[in-house]
Design goal:
Rossmann fold, 4 domains, seven-stranded parallel β-sheet, 20 helices, 22 strands, globular
Length: about 550
């Protein structure tokens, strides 16, 4: 298995930092492949079974998910689980639940560790995590500590500096969007006459008081406006809605149901069975909308979700990022046949976008620095529309409330810069970054192909759409992704990374530009007089020749018209 080059950069920097400082924090958003990267760090540091590692997480799903992906990256290392139902340290790497491991009776049974990894490390400031870290360091003063998180700044403003002295690397959302590994968010701030009231809501425990927010947002006219705006802009999309209280969420869910839209409700006090049934209804497509209260903010993903509705403000930028991140994962055709997802609509009926604007966090490990940063950000992220007097994010070029266009002249007159948007899209050098040499097979550059020893990938433009069609020695040709070119190349690259190794990746091999062999030319008689045909291009042409029919078949089945 190969890492993306950007993933490998983070892994290399984490290893250097761990050797230099004994600890480090790595920051990477949803979709970056945090589990793959942390598994690679463990594999590099613990090459033999003599090393002992523990990966700590705060949810059962994360523990099992981490173990499953770890085995794919490190098949030579054994694993074990330490949670409420199973308590084993037999594996080279143990995946543990923090709630279980942090009990003193369980810590006393913990072996000496060489490496401790904390997933979702923004939680690491809690006493349960500190207890585990301190006990592990007592057993082994040379313990190495790695933290991985998407949102490093804690909501309670407490810094992570007591545990981590440095940040080895930060992969940004902008990088992943530009490379096609996440879809782009398109945000609309929908003013239903409550923005000024919401700004005055008092804060409890650092965040907005949920009951007070509900008193403002939980009214029938607002519910009807929310459903109407949603139907107009996102009526064909699977949607996750974030509310402030259970009653608020229940009333919003009822409003969708009364409008004839299939919707389900989920909140913390539900039984496990009720929660499972609600999630199953949504993920199976039976329900189009899922309304929740603080349950789906973190650690949950359903890639077909392509609309996020915010019906609550949030003081913490990390919460804002987590909520929108639920809708940014791309979909793969093989997993969701016929589903096309190019972007994610964010319909904000509160003040979250106005308060935070950016989906990128500047990492601050020191306590107090986060609060200064967010207060400065909150005061500088909005502007007034001169036409409707609505409050809109500072970076927008067009008012999402009335359509007013901010002219360059007007921008120069305003006391803040509108020149830099939060997501300035650029062409990502994905072909340069790829482990594989992608070759155009037509003059129009609408058919690209790359191959390794085990797998091949093609990116094809048909009927105004790009398709990623892939295959391998063990897998028949199938469509992996449909949508924008960068997303299709990214998906095909990831597929080949999964199937190939460093030894079989074709890009810097010396034989690439050697002339085609006589054996290759036997299969390509039409190229007998092509003295410029390289060995690699001949390999690509042979791959295409053997797979042309299956490729055309899957394309035709995907788009019969």
């Amino acid at each position: 298995m190969l890492l993306r080059p950007r993933q490998q950069d983070l892994v290399d920097r984490a290893i250097i930092a761990l050797h230099q400082y004994g600890n480090t924090l790595a920051v990477a958003p949803t979709g970056a492949g945090k589990t793959i990267m942390l598994s690679s760090v463990i594999g590099a540091l613990c090459k033999t079974s003599l090393a002992k590692t523990c990966v700590v997480a705060h949810r059962d799903e994360l523990t099992l998910q981490n173990e499953s992906k770890f085995k794919r990256v490190n098949p030579h290392l054994s694993t074990s689980i330490f949670d409420a139902s199973e308590k084993s340290w037999q594996g080279d790497t143990t995946f543990a639940m923090v709630q279980t491991l942090s009990r003193m009776s369980h810590l006393e049974a913990m072996p000496s560790l060489d490496l401790l990894v904390i997933d979702e490390a923004h939680h690491a400031g809690a006493e349960s995590y500190k207890r585990i870290v301190n006990f592990a360091k007592k057993l082994n003063p040379k313990l190495k500590l790695l933290g991985m998180t998407a949102t490093p700044n804690r909501g309670d403003k407490k810094g992570l500096s007591p545990l981590f002295s440095n940040v080895c690397d930060q992969i940004t959302l902008q990088e992943l969007i530009a490379s096609g590994h996440l879809v782009r968010p398109r945000t609309f701030v929908m003013d239903v006459g409550v923005q000024k009231k919401l700004k005055d809501v008092k804060k409890t425990g650092g965040d907005y008081d949920g009951e007070e927010v509900a008193q403002i947002m939980d009214t029938l006219p607002i519910h009807e406006a929310v459903v109407a705006h949603w139907r107009e802009k996102a009526g064909d999309r699977q949607t996750v809605v974030f509310c402030s209280t259970v009653d608020h969420a229940r009333h919003v869910c009822e409003a969708f149901l009364e409008a004839g839209i299939t919707a389900v409700l989920i909140y913390g006090e539900m039984s496990d069975k009720e929660r499972e049934e609600a999630l199953k209804a949504y993920t199976s497509g039976t329900a189009q909308v899922i309304v929740n209260v603080a349950v789906l903010i973190e650690g949950w993903d359903h890639p077909p979700t392509s609309c996020v509705v915010l019906l609550r403000p949030c003081s913490y930028q990390s919460t804002f990022i987590q909520m929108i991140g639920r809708g940014l994962r791309p979909v793969h055709e093989e997993e969701y046949p016929g589903l096309l997802k190019k972007d994610c609509l964010v319909l904000d009926f509160g003040t979250a976008t106005l308060a935070h604007g950016s989906l990128e966090q500047k990492v601050e490990l020191e306590e107090g620095k986060q609060q200064e940063q967010e207060e400065t950000q909150e005061n500088a992220r909005t502007k007034d529309c001169p036409q409707c007097e609505g409050i809109v994010p500072v970076a927008v070029k067009e008012c999402s409330l009335c359509g007013f266009e901010f002219s360059p002249t007007l921008e120069k007159e305003l006391p803040f810069s509108l020149q830099q948007e939060d997501f300035v899209m650029r062409e990502f050098p994905i072909f340069k970054e790829s482990h594989f040499l992608w070759l155009p097979l037509t003059d129009r550059q609408d058919y690209l192909m790359a191959c390794g020893f085990e797998a091949w990938g093609s990116v094809i433009f048909r009927k105004d759409q790009w398709y990623a069609v892939v295959g391998s020695r063990k897998d028949k040709a199938h469509i992996l992704a449909v949508g924008e070119k960068t997303a299709c190349v990214a998906a095909a690259n990831d597929w080949m990374n999964l199937k190939e190794s460093k030894d079989s990746a074709h890009k810097v091999k010396g034989w690439l530009n050697l002339p085609a062999t006589s054996n290759q030319l036997r299969y390509l008689p039409e190229h007998n007089q092509d003295y410029h045909l390289t060995r690699y291009k001949a390999s690509i042409l042979m791959t295409l020749k053997f797979n042309a029919k299956p490729i055309e078949t899957v394309l035709r089945l995907s788009n019969p018209n």
